[in-house]
Amino acid sequence: MSEAIWVKLVGTLPSLLWVVFATVVYLSLRGTIVQSLVPRISALRALGVEVEMAGQLIDQAAEVSETAVTPADRQGVLGRLEHAADILSGGKILWVDDHPENNVALIRLFRSVDMRVDTVLSTSEARLALGHGSYDIILSDIERHGDPQAGISMLRELERMVIALPVLVHAANFNPELGIDRRIFAATNKPVEIVHYVIDLMERARFGSPQV
Fold this sequence. Notes:
globular, 11% strand, 5-stranded parallel sheet
């Protein structure tokens, strides 16, 4: 073999060694790299929808409720949804509202993370649902069928039934200056805040903390 060929081989040896070294390192660390990506991949798959679709549902819910969603609000709630996907999966919500069409976007959003959402139109229907199934959270409006205190009356009914589930109020005409009933975990007219509160309550339920 000529001297020129030997010189050329010697010159390419460092590059070949780096390729071999990189290959060995990749094969050695491949399992660790994949495992580090699993939580994020699982969270994205558990969402059931693309993150952008979840963002669109948030925007639709805000539009129906006539509340503004800032870019920071949007980014924050989508980030929580992604990381709380496993906690939300399997959660059960009973939603009491005589206008469920106003909640379609949020219902779709919660169902997209594998939550069960049952909708009823009245307190009497809520009693039947609670008697035949178990739930983690009750979501309710305040005014129903012309009764401005229907939601509050339902709370007293829950007490008589000895049902201690946390109650979230989502009402377009909610006025925090009027105060919040002791049985209400939180109340708001902002869909983004409802999502945060649902995550908060499901975290408590999963980790065994007191709910109310």
